[in-house]
Amino acid sequence: MDVTNELDVVVIGAGISGIYAAKFYLDMHPGCRLAILDRDNCVGGTWNSRRGYDSFWTQWTVGTAEFSDLPMPRPPEDDVYYEFFKAKHTTKYLESYVDHHSYGGQTLRDRIRFSTEVQSLVKPDGRWIVLTKDRVTGAELVFRTPKLMVASGLTSIANMPPLPGREDFRGQILHHEDFGSSNVLSTPKIQNIVVLGGGKSSADMVYEAVKAGKTVSWVLKATDTTGPGFFLSPKGKGPYKNAFEIGMTRLAGTFNPSFMNGINWWTRLLHCSKYGVRMMGTFWGAVDTATRRDANFERESLQGFEKLNPHSP
Asked: Which of 27, 225, 241, 255 could form a disulfide linkage to 83, CB 3.0–4.6 angstroms apart?
């Protein structure tokens, strides 16, 4: 085990939140000893270059996916759809951001320790002891710090389901996390691809594989009746360019019951009264009808597409 590194601040995760947490702290304390630890080998977390691929799109609109101190250049129009844009432009922006900011002669990138996976955290004497392992060399490294920021995100560790008989399967088995860096689309030896799951990442992989000319089977649980909510039409209404912009308004935000909205006369009316519940039911029913109409699940040109029609609104 390597000697202990004494630091003032340790940030776990070099994604969007970790990068900006480090930047904000260094703005206040430019002379501090700060390190960012990340288990991957590149910047960006979910949006890093290893995990990216051409059909990976953001679910936010141009102008909202940037930090206030550095505007993101507008992507080419070919990579923009109703103001949503391809995720590779977020990747490029984050890569430039960590090189743009420097404190005490060190950029944010200089402070990132890549391929460093946190093994354990303990705080025995008022200071955090962070035990890490280098994913390339296997070497262990210990950090001691009084301040710790955890920004590892919700998608850091792949959730791979148990697959009975996988040891006898001759093909590749991989998680969405490794899809962008794999050769499943580029190699002609792989013609048939099976995708498990009904989330956005599954839909993205299906779309990318179909575009690459592969034969794709999409397997969804029969008991999954919630429906793929991300199939909502991207189109906006009125002054709003897309559905994201509508959803981010204060008014639309109150249409979902949420503790973040607080309890007041308006939320009580919408979610606690018979009239409000009926009104919300009518509103979301109209959204559901419009979504199904736009998706056109019954189209004859795509065999089996009707099976993606959600069982519930």
From this structure: 241
- Rounded to whole angstroms, how far apart are CA atoms 96 and 288? 40
Summarised one tens digit per residue, pLDDT across range 136-159 is: 999 999 999 999 999 998 777 888
pTM to 2 decimals?
A: 0.86
Q: Taking 90 as the threshold, does the pLDDT of residue 295 lie above it?
A: no
Asked if 180 contacts 53 with a C-beta cutoff of 8 angstroms, the reply is yes
Start-end of H helices in the chain: 16-28, 88-100, 200-211, 243-247, 250-253, 265-272, 274-295
CB 206 within 8 A of CB 195: yes
Q: Which amino acid is at 134?
A: D
252's tokens: 């639309």
pLDDT digits (tens, 9 = 90+) for 166-222: 999 989 999 999 999 999 999 999 999 999 987 788 888 998 999 999 999 988 877
Q: How big is the chain, counted in residues?
A: 313
Tell me if 97 sits within 8 A of 24, measured CB to CB. no
Domain locations in the chain as residue ranges: 4-52+87-150, 166-226, 249-294
Query: Would you list the DSSP string of 155-194?
Result: SSS--PPP-TTGGG--S----GGGTTTSSTTT-TT--EEE
Distance CA 46, CA 214 (A): 25
Which numeric CATH code is attached to 4-52+87-150? 3.50.50.60
Terminal Cα distance for the chain, rounded:
55
